[in-house]
Amino acid sequence: MAFSYEHYMNLLSHLECASETVPPDIARRIVSHAVAPVITVTSSLALDDHIMESYKVQSAYLLFRLFGGCISDRDQLMEHYTLDDSSTGGRTRKRSNSLFQRDATQSQFIRFAQPLPDLLRSYTEQQGLFDNDSLEWYLTHYLSWIQKLTATDPEKVEQLPDELTPSSPPQRGKPLPHKLLRNAVYHNFFALAVSSTTRISPFETFNVPVMNLIAIDVSRGQDYEVVRDLVTTFKNLNKFLEDFPVFINVNDILPMIVLCYDAADETQLATCEQLQRKIKKCLFVDSIPLALWDEDPESPLVPLHEPIMSSLDEIVKFYSSNSSAGGDEVGTDGHSRAALPLNIITHMYQALDVLVDEMLIPFMHRKTKYWEENILQPRKSIFHGSNNFFKKFIGKTTTQRDPSDTQFFPASSTECLLRKLADWSLMLSDFKTAYLTYDSLSNDLQNSPNYLASCLEWCAVSLLLGAQNIVTVKMIKTEITPLIERAVATYRQQGRSSYETRCMILSAELFLALRDTWTSTPYAIRYLETILRDCPQLGACSQVMIWERLSDCYQSRTDPRVASALSTNTSPGSAQPGNEILAQGFTRKRKAAFFRLIAAKKWAEQGQWRQVQWCLHDIKDIYTASALYDKKGLLIDRLNTEVQSFSM
Amino acid sequence: MPEYFAIVGPGDRPLYESELGRGAWTPEQRELNPFVLHSSLDVIEDLQWQLLPENSDTVSNTGGGEFGGAAQSGAAQGGGGGFLRSHRAKTETDNCYLGRVDHFYGLAVSAYTTYSGLKLLMVHGSGIVDDANCRSFYQEVHELYVKTLMNPFYSAGGSANGSGSGTIGPAPITSRAFDSRVKAIARRHLR
Amino acid sequence: MPQSRSSSLSSSNPANAPQVRHLKALGDDTWKNKVEKVNAEFFHLTYGTIVAQLCEEYAGDYARVNGELFQIGYNLGVRLIEDFLARTALPRCDTFLKTSEVVSKCAFKIFLNLTPEVAHWNAARDSFDLVFGENPLAEHVELPPGASGQLWFSNVLCGVLRGALEMVQLDCDVEFVSDTLRGDMSTDIRVKLNKVLRDEIPAGED
C-alpha cells in the first residue's frame, strides 16, 4: 500500500506509516487543495431519507463530502487497491499516487460544500477567515488524541523517548517515530489556518461554488418534475433569498443533476438515460447517473475516513460529538465511521471522475478563456499594463459600485470577473494567467483596500506556486516580498487579522517549499516570527506550532554548496557538530535545536507532555555534545524533570 | 543591564561562563542563556568566512537575526571567502571581533572568534552592543585566555596517549583567578 | 676554600661593594654576550609541562613530585656548575657571603636572567634566603587546588643549587620556604651550609 497524500493528512489514522517521508513541496499540494473548486451538494428530501436508511448518513452532502480531496488518488479506496483492481479492470492501478507525482498540478483536488443558502447564512454571521478559539480547540483536541494514541499501545509508549534507532530493523514494539507525525500535525494546522472555512468572502472567490450538484432519487420514483423544480429554485436563488450577495452570480455556478439509482434494478438505468435526455433538452442542464445502491453480497463494507480538509466548524462538530460519545474508546478507529459497500465507492469515484474531468474542468476552462479574451486582453492591449491616466478617462472599464451595497463590487463588475478569472486560473494550475491577472487587477484596486489585500496576497502566492524552481533572490526581493508585505499591511489596516495571519503562514510555507532552502528559509522565518510578534490573538497551542515550524525552517536551511557533502558524509562519527569544518556556518542546526527547545518550553506551559518529549528527544544529541543537556539548573534539565513527574 | 558571557570551545563545549554587568537575570532567562548563545554559533560560523562589512552591525530585524545573514552569504560567494578576512584589519585580532551577530527577543548577542576557532560570546540583556567597549573586553579576555593556556596545569587539549578524559579540546576553565580577572575586565569595559 | 669564616660577615658589608659590583658586571656581560637565549614561553611551558606530568603520574602525591623535581635539579646542578665556571672563570669563593653573591648576581643572571635578592642571614652566618621578585619557571602558572599547600612548583631550583654547591665542596640544604604561587608574599629559597667538604671525597659518594 502506497503512502498517499490522504495518509499523510490523516496520519493519526495511519500510524503504521509514521516512518514514511513526504516530499518537501507538500505545502503546495495542501494549498492546491485549499483552493480547490468548491462543489455544493443539494438534494431532494427523498434522497436524503433513502441515504440515511441505507448508509446512516444524514444527507447527500454529508455523503459526498467524504469523497472530497484528491479524487485522482481515490483515497477512500486506498486500502483496497487489489480488490479495486479486479473490479475496474486495472484502471485505477495506473493512477500514480499524488504525493509522489513530480508535478503537483497533475493531481485534481475538489472540495464539497453545503448548499449555497447554508453557505450564505454562515457568511453573514462572521467575516473572519477562522476563529482562533475553534482553531485552538481543535488543536488541543488533536494533540490530546496524539497523546492517547501514542500511549494506548504500551509497547510503543515505553520506548518512545530517546532510544530511537532508525537503522535497526523494524520489529515489534519499535518506538513510534514522531518526525512525520509532527510534520503532519503542523500541516493539519496549516491546512486549517489557510482554508478552515467554506464561508464565502466577498473579496475572493475561492469559496464561491463552481458547481452545484442537484441530486435526486430515481429509485424512489423522483422524476423530471422534481429536477425542474430544484433547478428552477437554484437558478433563482438570488431572487428567493433575502440579502443574496451582489458578488455572486448564479450563472457562474454550473448546475449538475445527479440521478441516484439502484443498479440492482436494471430498468432504472434506462429510466435515468431517458431522464438525462429530457433534462438536457428542456432544461439545458447536464446530468449523470450515479448507482448509489447496488446489491452485491460479495462487496465488503468499507469504512470511510473523514475528508482531509473540511471547514473548521464541521471538524469541531465532528470531534466534539465523538469525544462525548466515544469516551475512552480512542483507537485508530475510535470514532464511528460511515461505511459504504466497496462497489458503491467505486461507482462514486467513477461518477466523480466524469463530473470533474468532463464537466467541471471544461466548464472552468471555457469560462476563464472567455473572461481572458473579453476582459483581460482588451485592457492589456489598450493600456499596456498600468497606465492609470487613460484608465480614468475611459471610466467604463472600472465599474461603479452597486448603489444598494456600496461595500462590494457586483458579480458583473470587471473587478469581480477579473478576480474570478485569476482565482479559477489558480485552481486550474494556470499560475501564469493567475499572476498576470492579479497583477493587473491590483492596479485597479488601489482604492478598495479590502479587495487589494487579498489580490496582492494571491499575486504573491501564484508566483510562488508557479515558479517554484526558478525563484531567485532578486525575484523574491523585488517582487514577492513587497507583495506580501503590502498585503499584510493592508489586511492590518482593515483589521482582518485572521487573513493577515493566513497570508503570512501561507507564504512562509510556500517559501519553505522552494528548492533552494538556503535562500528561501529566511523569508519563511521572517513571516513566522512576524506572526508570533504581531498576532497575539492566536491561541497558545497555535503559537507553539509556529515555534516548532521555525525550528523546522532552520533545520532545513542548508547551503546548497554543502548540502550534498553533508548528506553523503553523515556517518555516526561525524554527527557531532563542529567536526565538519567545511560545513561550518552553512547550516542552522543549532538554531533549529534552540527553537525546538523554546517550543518544548511552551508545550510544557500548555501541558502537552508528549510534544515536550518529542522536542527533547530531537535536541538531545546536539545538546549532549555541547554538555548542555544534562547540566543542572538549565531549561532542559527542568523540562526533563517535569516531563518525568507529569507524564504517563 | 546584565550580561551573560561564555567561552565556547571545540564541539560547542562551554569552557567558561559568567554573568557580568549590572543587575541580575531573571531565573527564566538564566536557564535559557546558554542556549541562546549556543544557537548563535551557527551564525558566527557563517560570518567567520566572510569579509567583514563596513559596519559590523549586520542584523536588522527583530526575530532570530537570520535575515541579515541571507544578504551576506551572497557577498561571500562573490568575495571568495576565507577565514576571518577583512581589508580593514588594524591589528591581528581586529578581525576576530564580529560585533553584534544575532538577537533574540530583546537580547543581543555579540561574538568574537579566535583564529583557532575558539568562540567568545555574550548575551546583552540591554539588547545593545557597544562595539568599542565590547571589542576591548573581548580582546583582553582573549589575551587572558592565551595566558591561561600557558598554565601547565590547565588541560588545553586531550591526552596525547589517549588516556585523558576522552574529550578533545580545552578543558573548562575553573580557575578562580581567571574568573576574577574576567570580571575585572568587564568592570572596566562593560557598564 | 672558604676558610676565614671569622672575617667580617655583616649582612650589609660596604667593604664588599666593589666586589659585588664586579660580580654583577660579570653576570650581566656573560648573559649578554656568551649565552644562547631561548623563547620564554617555550622555556616555561617545557618546565611546566614536566611538573604537570609528574603531578599526573604521581596522582597528586606532591611530596614525591617535590622530591623528583629536586632530583632532576640536582642532576642539572652537578653539570651546570662546570659550564658556569667555564663561562665565568671565577675563582673559588673565600666566604659563604661571597658564594651567596655569586649565586645571586652571576649564576641566576646567566642562566635565568634574574637576580634574586640575598637576605635573611642568620646569626651564625651559615644560612641565607634568596628572594625572587619574579620567577620565569612559574610564569602564568596557577596551582591546581589540591597542590597549594604541598607542591613546590619550582623545586628544581633547589636541586640545582644543591647539586652545584656540592660540586664546589659546599654541602648545603636548599629548600623553599615560601612561594607566591601558594599565595605567600614572596618566593624565598633558603640555602643553609652544613659543612665544607674535603676535596678528596667525590661528591655524592659519601
From TrEMBL, chain A:
Query: How is this protein annotated for GO cellular component?
Result: cytoplasmic vesicle; phagophore assembly site; TRAPPIII protein complex
Question: Mind listing the GO biological process terms from this record?
Answer: Cvt vesicle assembly; endoplasmic reticulum to Golgi vesicle-mediated transport; meiotic cell cycle; pexophagy; piecemeal microautophagy of the nucleus; protein localization to phagophore assembly site
Q: Per the record, a Pfam family? A: TRAPPC-Trs85
Lineage top rank: taxon: Eukaryota
Which InterPro entries does UniProt cross-reference here? Answer: TRAPP_III_complex_Trs85
Segment forming the signal sequence:
none
Under which name does UniProt file this protein?
Answer: Trafficking protein particle complex III-specific subunit 85
Q: Which gene encodes it?
A: KNAG0H03270
TrEMBL record, chain B:
**Gene Ontology biological-process entries:** endoplasmic reticulum to Golgi vesicle-mediated transport; protein-containing complex assembly
| Pfam families associated with the record | Sedlin_N
Annotated spans, Disordered? 60-84
GO CC term (a single one): TRAPPI protein complex
Transmembrane regions: none
**Protein name in the entry:** Trafficking protein particle complex subunit
The record lists the organism as: Huiozyma naganishii (strain ATCC MYA-139 / BCRC 22969 / CBS 8797 / KCTC 17520 / NBRC 10181 / NCYC 3082 / Yp74L-3) (Yeast)
Automatic annotation (TrEMBL), chain C:
Q: What UniProt keywords are attached to this protein's entry?
A: Endoplasmic reticulum, ER-Golgi transport, Golgi apparatus, Transport
Q: Output the Pfam families linked to this UniProt entry.
A: TRAPP
Q: Which GO terms describe its biological process?
A: cellular response to nitrogen starvation; cytoplasm to vacuole targeting by the Cvt pathway; endoplasmic reticulum to Golgi vesicle-mediated transport; intra-Golgi vesicle-mediated transport; macroautophagy
What's the chief localization of this chain? Answer: endoplasmic reticulum
Where it sits in the cell: the answer is: Endoplasmic reticulum; Golgi apparatus, cis-Golgi network
* SUPFAM superfamilies (UniProt xref): Ligand-binding domain in the NO signalling and Golgi transport
Q: Does the keyword Endoplasmic reticulum apply?
A: yes
List, alphabetically, the Gene3D superfamilies matched.
Trafficking protein particle complex subunit 3
What are this entry's molecular-function GO terms?
guanyl-nucleotide exchange factor activity
Establish whether keyword GTP-binding is in the entry. no
* Entry-linked InterPro entries: Bet3 (IPR016721), NO_sig/Golgi_transp_ligand-bd (IPR024096), TRAPP_component (IPR007194)
This protein's GO cellular component annotations are: cis-Golgi network membrane; endoplasmic reticulum; TRAPPI protein complex; TRAPPII protein complex; TRAPPIII protein complex
Task: Give the similarity note.
Answer: Belongs to the TRAPP small subunits family. BET3 subfamily.
What PANTHER family does UniProt report for this protein, alphabetically?
TRAFFICKING PROTEIN PARTICLE COMPLEX SUBUNIT 3 (PTHR13048)
Q: What is this protein called?
A: Trafficking protein particle complex subunit BET3
Native source species: Huiozyma naganishii (strain ATCC MYA-139 / BCRC 22969 / CBS 8797 / KCTC 17520 / NBRC 10181 / NCYC 3082 / Yp74L-3)
List the taxonomic lineage: Eukaryota, Fungi, Dikarya, Ascomycota, Saccharomycotina
Q: By which gene is this protein encoded?
A: KNAG0C06320
